[in-house]
Every structure is written in C-alpha cells, then in structure tokens.
C-alpha cells in the first residue's frame, strides 16, 4: 500500500498500465475490455483495476488532471508497485487543421510550461520524451487497427482556461496539441528508467472551435483504448 493507492502488494498491479485522467474512463475500460477486472484502488475515487486482456495481465488507473496529480500516481506505480510500461490515454486540444477531432496523437516529446523538472535538479533545459519501445509497439499494433494516428511534439500545460493566442505560438513550433500530464509522466519514467508513452484523442479543436461532450470524453474514444491494450500484449 502506498499513500494514494491501496493495492495490497506489488503483484496486484500489472507491469503494463493504461492511465486515463478520468477515473470513470478507467472504470469504463475495466468493465468493457478487461476480463475479471478487480478494483485495487478507490482512494479519493481514483479508480484502479487489474484484469487480463487476451490472457495478459493489464491494469488501468485514473490519474486525475494536471501534472501534480499525474506525478503522484505515476511515481507510486513505478516505485512502489514496479510498473514498467505506462501508457497515458487522454484527451487533447488540437492546434492544427490536419489534426482532427477523433484523431489519436502520440506525444513523441512533451514541451511544457510547468516547473515539474525542478524536482530533478538538472543543470539546463530538459526535453521530456516518449519511450521508443512503446512508440514501436503503437506503430506495430496499429497495423491491424488502422486508427488515425499522428505523432509529434505536444505541450503539457498547467492551465486549462488560458486566454488569447498563446496556442498559436506553440503551433508555430509545430506542436500538435495541448494536454496537461504527459511531461510529468515522461520525467518520472525517465528518472526511474521505465517506459512511458502519452496518446491522446483530440476532443477539442482550437481552429474550428469544436468540443466533445463530457459523455464522449468518458466513454468514447475506444480506438485509443484498443490501441493501448493491443500494445500491452506485443
Ligand atoms: O482526458 P484526460 O486524460 O483527463 O486529459 C485531458 O483532459 C483534462 C482536461 O479536461 C486534462 O487532464 C487533460 O490533460
Ligand atoms: O488539456 C486539454 C485537454 C483537452 N482539450 C484541451 O483543450 N486541453
């Protein structure tokens, strides 16, 4: 048991885990995609389940919103429960015309406006990046699934409700989309030498003004869920 996760022991959480921000998305995945899912965490309502997918143990854990929350859950999963492969399955807002609602974006790197890197005391800037191993698995798994995938730099921001044209300056640097957790996940994974990849379904569009409903954010986006699950058995 750790401070924010009350799974009893290491083996109660699988080596590969899906990490949606929304705990109800975790519940939906457990109930619809995992065999014999067991609830191992409900502290703070941040549901975590372990079951099997095509015979392989897989867990799914809500991580909340923002880098402090992702930082806590991913750190405990890695250091207290030995999780090796962490796949964030989130939502994001697109900055580009050709990255459309429903597309899945793989964050090869995660730029950020956060100070999370201060925890690691590096003597310069740091470029949080995805695991090559997991990127290859995503590519491999998608050969059968054919999900509309885009990959590139994303930005993890501390503020959801930002004003003005801030996003255009990230778009100018060819950053594809905004979300709020990937950079912290990548830093925790790098420090602890484990694998992480953040994939996000586009739920909002800064150019067209489109927005998905909260119901869609919770229950839809099953392409991304299937892709992440298939990666766990590669
Ligand atoms: O859908 P999730 O995984 O929560 O991800 C995105 O949605 C939340 C904001 O609505 C932030 O957590 C952001 O990163
Ligand atoms: O952080 C996020 C997530 C989804 N959509 C956004 O616009 N921002």
From TrEMBL:
The active site is at residue 204. It holds the Pfam family PNP_UDP_1. The keyword Transferase applies. PROSITE patterns: PNP_UDP_1. Its EC number is 2.4.2.1. Homohexamer; trimer of homodimers. This is Purine nucleoside phosphorylase DeoD-type. It comes from Aminipila terrae. The gene is deoD.
